[in-house]
What we know:
With 162 residues, the chain is α+β, with helices and mostly antiparallel strands. Helices cover 27% and strands 16% of the residues. It contains four helices and five strands, in the order αβββαββαα. It binds adenosine monophosphate (AMP) and zinc ion.
Amino acid sequence: MPDCLFCKIARKEFGSAVIYENGDVLAFLDINPRAPGHAMVVSRTHSETLLDLPDEALAPLFEGVKTVTGMLQRALAPDGFTIGINHGKASGQAVDHLHVHVIPRFTGDGGGSIHTVVSNAEGRGWKARPKDSFSPSLKASSEAHPPKEALEEMAARIRKAQ
Ligand code: AMP
Ligand code: ZN
């Protein structure tokens, strides 16, 4: 895709702060970092989402993510990472070339977990379970959880699509 910004960055036709590259992937710093060292890893193969990335490009991309995460750990000693993909416009994907964000996290940095990205409880149609039926790990949480049957029904629907 000649007009794609991240393809241009991968071909070095457009400047970026490259931190890692090999024959398959390139990693560079986000121009608008949400944290020190906020990096993005892209495949040199253009695809908009994971669903159209050729299978043979998958492992190199995630090997690149692992390598870059290790480099950031050694360079910046963060306390953790948030690693994720804005996948499709509804999720906030702004650049139409699949990219994996690797965001170093520091204790007390004010950010939330992936669970804070969306809370689409409306319309799911379940009522909160009584607290005593929660598993021990959920008892501490004040959030409502769907009944077991609702999760099983959703899992069955997704399994059918395999
Ligand atoms: P997303 O919402 O996941 O599509 O994020 C796109 C990301 O690309 C944003 O975090 C932007 O800050 C970043 N970005 C856009 N243009 C550039 C660029 N030229 N170099 C580095 N990062 C960029
Ligand atoms: Zn591209």
